[in-house]
Here is the input.
Amino acid sequence: MVVGSMLHINGKPTVHFSCKSNHDRPSYIPKPTAVKMTTITTTTITTAPSILQPYWASLQADIEAHLKHVMPYKDPLVVFEPMHHLVFSAPRTTVPALCLAAGELLSGDRHQAMAAASALVLLLAANHTHEQIPSKPKPKPMSRPKSNTMSFRAFSPGIELMTGDGLIPFGFELLSRSCDSVQENSDRVLRVMIEISRAVGSKGLIDAQYKKKLLSESDGGESCHVERIMDIMEKNEGGLHACGASCGAVLGGGSEEEIERLRKFGFYVGMIQGMVNEGFWEEVEVVKDLAFKELQYFKDNNRDVDAISSFIIHV
Amino acid sequence: MVVGSMLHINGKPTVHFSCKSNHDRPSYIPKPTAVKMTTITTTTITTAPSILQPYWASLQADIEAHLKHVMPYKDPLVVFEPMHHLVFSAPRTTVPALCLAAGELLSGDRHQAMAAASALVLLLAANHTHEQIPSKPKPKPMSRPKSNTMSFRAFSPGIELMTGDGLIPFGFELLSRSCDSVQENSDRVLRVMIEISRAVGSKGLIDAQYKKKLLSESDGGESCHVERIMDIMEKNEGGLHACGASCGAVLGGGSEEEIERLRKFGFYVGMIQGMVNEGFWEEVEVVKDLAFKELQYFKDNNRDVDAISSFIIHV
Here is the structure.
């Protein structure tokens, strides 16, 4: 049983599946019928592990406390009230916490990567907010009425659109302001900005969302769906966690080797979450092993990996 | 005849009007009946001067050529095609060109502030794209049918929403990548990011758009409308041009004095455009004088201000 083929292209790990007929569908899919659109449309933002481990929860609490500090209720309230609501009501992901964890692993200081973690919270909240905005016209009267499963909307789509638009530059502003003339970390901060821009941008998360949209409209074979789901997962859960971990590593003062290993570790963390969400259970153990191998490097270099390994142990 | 009172608070010039009854309406409004909602709803993004001066047009052409170079048609086409369309079909503003002009004034190199000018194009295009997304439900069948004046939509609202979301981080990525280890300009680039984040963010352009939305729903007195229109104009046209000019000055290597003077000059350039759009003709000449006074400082220091002064001469 293998997890497709784990390719490493330009240092970026990818899980590759070729698009074949149903006959050639990879054998590792335990429940092929489980690959349905209803599944993928609910996994845009990676959900946090169902068991909130103490370490993850503690990192998340620190990030939220920091965000409440830098984003107080202030004038204009008409702007900051929905901003607060949408940031703190968006689904939590493990991406920002992994960013802090990577920074802590390398620097010993949990707050070393706080600006990047906070920016990630804001950018992912903006993305989630915009994703919730209805973009299609209402169904015609002749359509079959849907059950009342719409989530509660606290603000109008117009306000949510604008608020999301405000969150994105605020995330970048927080990062820019984190520059410290004593630490002379401006080059690191700029590098993190490039990492984050790419992960959430048109070749990252946005591309995944386009592809998800296309997939939801397609009627391709199941094996094609699997390949496309994995492709989306690589940029969504995988790419975002790779970004979080690498940003933490950059701000934690990591070497290029350390940054790239943590990037791969983050990618595996995200892929594991995505695979769990999709029901690809058998692959999860394989990818966990790959993730542990990346951590082994740090263990061999006398780093304490117990805390960060909880991102995969408890999944 | 005075232009309200030009206040300088914390170095930021503001035009202050108190909200009074119609009886106390400032006497400088030549055509009070011209202050209508139909006017303000069309001026979210400052339109370029109707006469395209050679200098402005030349700067704009350079920026667009640069954008086409850094944003080629590439995979994923489903992402980059709408991205191109929405960037180059968005209304042009003089904000990015003013950024280049300020950089050129101080450094002698027109391309010194190209990254900031390009980022401004992308962020304003994203804002415009999102502003065009219909956020309200369609009018009820009983409503009076509107004339067919809807602008042509090349892409669905969903695609435009996502594309706008991709443009914003790409703008910040371009800026981050503009760091030059030879020039050691990372601190300048980070400062520019803060400037831009604030100008387009929740206390800047987004706040102006919230206020515009509230204004469009209000039934306040005319004089209140004037005050609120000016308030919106300060963050929209004024704030964006102040940002453009100050970013150019920062990247052009300006001193704090030069940066703040160009920020004020930019603010006046934007306010002049806003006032022209609103029909506040008599105030325009007053603000032009204020703008020229800022340029005089550079003239006194042997800078050639002929080119940049075209931003106010031809309005």
